[in-house]
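Q: I'm a student working through a structural biology exercise. My instructor gave each of us a protein and asked us to get a predicted structure, then write a short paragraph describing it. Mine is Sugar kinase of the NBD/HSP70 family, may contain an N-terminal HTH domain. I'm not confident about reading structure output yet, so if you can add a plain explanation after the tokens, that would really help. Here is the sequence I was given:
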Amino acid sequence: MAKESTLRFGAQTDEVTSLLRIVNMVRAGDAATRPEIGRVTGLGRGVVTQRVDQAIEMGYLEDGEFGPSSGGRAPRTLRFRSGRGRIVVCALGALHIHVGVAMLEGDILEQSHRAWDIARGPAETLDTALAMIDEVLARTPDVPVWGVSVGIPGPVDFHSGRPVAPPIMPGWNGFDIRRRFEERYEAPVWVDNDVNLLALNERSRRRDESLDLIYCKVGSGIGAGLLSQGRIHRGANGAAGDIGHVRVAGSDALCRCGKIGCLEAVAGGWALVRDAEVAVADGAAGVLAARTREGEPLTPEAIARAAENGDALAISLIQQCARVVGESIAALVNMFNPGTIVIGGAVVGAGEVFLAEVRQRVYELSLPLATRDLAIVQSQNDLREPLRGGAEMVREQLFDATFPRWFADGRPTTAAIHPAG
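A: Happy to help. First, here is the predicted structure for Sugar kinase of the NBD/HSP70 family, may contain an N-terminal HTH domain. I'll explain a few features afterward.
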């Protein structure tokens, strides 16, 4: 296209800037008609018409139904063509693989889930995940994949997409996860810590683009995703929020990372199971202990459910865990001053038994100003949370972070977003 070819250049002109803005306004629902675009942007009617025509010609927008009239001819609405591409999401957990596919508006169309031990290594794990994704893709519209999100339960260098010394992922250190997905789907790929995806899901669910929030996940391990004014705070190298390996004063528990006294080694899901096993072996009474002796698996989820149902051993374990976690969260509250803390992971099943203890420690140890408007709530505990968060990350990276690099091509390319070298 002649108009499209004029947009393939180095510098971003005013024409391109306004075109990108208009596409994103329609995509985000900030404007739905040409007159609305003119009012929001201050552009003249002729310029708006020209830019909208360009966006339609390039395949980003399309005309919709007629909108309400304000006295004259009813304006025709505009729609973002979200059906042009698919988003693939792969959420790897310590003990599961969860994959899904969304269109460009971010809603998960299809998903698949299976139990899996991530310690089986990257080759076998990714082979399994890719096969699951292919099965899910086959159940969705046959349009190109525009982006892929991969969440993992460990530290990630976000720039390279490679795990960095992940404690519960033997064999994954430095592994090029991005390459496997790029080769399969010929689309840009982003790899991030799984808790960051959960934080992004909260932003999407609350529809708050200026959210200050901490998502704290207490599952097999412990981690936190930090949202500052709606943006994930990853830090200089992607390690922000990794509170699971903060030292707990007075603890000599050996952590899976090889260090002593880490928060995860004191209060993580595997530490809960370890302490429960010791208590049962020492003759603890109650429903949880009895069922464990009868052969039922002892898991963090089982302990959380037993605590909610009033089991004394489970309650004591959950409260001890919550006190220590609350102390670490209080430090984050003093430094970060969030408006909301969301607690997720295996402990969510304990409900208020866990939350009440966390709230007490946070309010005891944090500055009054930092807790004045603070809400501490539990997550929805929805299986699709990491999938929706992964789709949200891809949408953010495509349309907020990298759109100028690839929009003239009509769809994102790996070369434009992750250039070699």
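A: Here are two points you could use in your paragraph. The chain has three domains: 2-80, 84-200+384-417, 207-378. The chain has a mean pLDDT of 93. It's a good idea to check both against the output above yourself.
Q: Great, thank you!
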